[in-house]
């Protein structure tokens, strides 16, 4: 099998030109994003040296841990996953612009920070949910995270819903609307996955930004693009897809790379 991957560490002109030309002519880019697109907005990613998992093991973001230690879970989640003060950066902004220009069909993100939407992107799938809200697992009452914050300050059992009564208190827990390990989410359904696979099938090419592509099922999505459809990866770290067929890899900052590509598109 012939490999066409262009793995570079210093933005080789060739790979940049290829990527720029693909983007120039594209009408249906599917963008897959992860925590790395938000680090330039001051938000920690997960698996880099200074990432969230340097502070605690992955287990802290599991459904088991949430049920067993709801107070500690909330404390950690509010401190590390909730960033209402963060603003979109160049990467988010350029993606929103490319959507307006009719290039980007959809963004499928693992991020729970809402920064794609705040930058103006309209067609965004929040595959791992959002940190903006929380929901009672029994009655479905929705709470804003700001409301949860004030409950934390004033109530001992702030994580237990007082809008309903259940036989078992665990059923009445109010869980942030994020997908935890061992958990599912809105998009984890037959219809949800089918919608995503349809996007993957229709893509001119797939653009991966700022994800280590290590967490399934999200990490499997690039595999569902049609044969011969290019995969462009802009990510500082390595991913399991770096040496795949029709794959172009730029191990660089997302903001810097996207700005350079965008400047070439609009000289
Ligand atoms: P990771 O921390 O695993 O990967 C982020 C990637 O972005 C790393 O490979 C970094 O090298 C890269 N990166 C960071 N800053 C960058 C920058 N400015 N420019 C270019 N690359 C940069 O984060 P995710 O792949 O998003 O799920 O993690 C996937 C999931 O694991 C998360 O959604 C979260 C976590 O557990 C749940 O909590 C369920
Ligand atoms: Zn309730």
Automatic annotation (TrEMBL):
Superkingdom to which the source organism belongs: Bacteria
Pfam family, one: SIR2
Active site: 128 (proton acceptor)
CDD domains: SIR2-fam (cd01407)
Record bears the keyword Transferase: yes
Binding site for Zn(2+): 136, 139, 161, 164
Domain Deacetylase sirtuin-type: 1-267
Transmembrane region(s): none
The protein's name: protein acetyllysine N-acetyltransferase
Organism in which the protein naturally occurs: Heyndrickxia camelliae
């Amino acid at each position: 099998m012939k490999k066409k991957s262009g793995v570079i560490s210093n933005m080789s002109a060739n790979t940049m030109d290829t990527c720029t030309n693909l983007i120039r002519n594209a009408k249906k880019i599917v963008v897959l994003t992860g925590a790395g697109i938000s680090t330039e907005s001051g938000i920690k990613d997960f698996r880099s040296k200074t990432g969230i998992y340097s502070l605690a093991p992955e287990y802290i973001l599991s459904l088991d841990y949430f049920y067993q230690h709801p107070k500690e879970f909330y404390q950690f989640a509010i401190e590390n996953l909730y960033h209402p003060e963060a603003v979109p950066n160049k990467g988010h902004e350029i993606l929103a612009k490319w959507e307006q220009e009719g290039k980007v069909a959809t963004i499928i993100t693992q991020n729970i920070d809402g920064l794609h939407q705040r930058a103006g992107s309209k067609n965004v799938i929040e595959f791992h949910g959002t940190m903006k809200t929380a929901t009672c697992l029994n009655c479905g009452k929705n709470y804003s995270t700001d409301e949860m914050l004030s409950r934390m300050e004033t109530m001992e059992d702030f994580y237990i819903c007082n809008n309903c009564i259940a036989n078992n208190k665990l059923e009445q827990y109010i869980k942030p609307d994020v997908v935890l390990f061992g958990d599912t989410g809105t998009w984890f359904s037959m219809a949800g996955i089918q919608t995503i696979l349809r996007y993957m099938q229709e893509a001119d090419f797939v653009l991966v930004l700022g994800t280590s592509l290590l967490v399934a099922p999200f990490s499997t999505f690039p595999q569902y693009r049609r044969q011969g459809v290019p995969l462009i990866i802009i990510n500082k770290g390595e991913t399991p897809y770096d040496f795949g067929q029709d794959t172009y890899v730029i191990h660089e900052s997302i903001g810097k790379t996207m700005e350079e590509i965008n400047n070439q598109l609009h000289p």
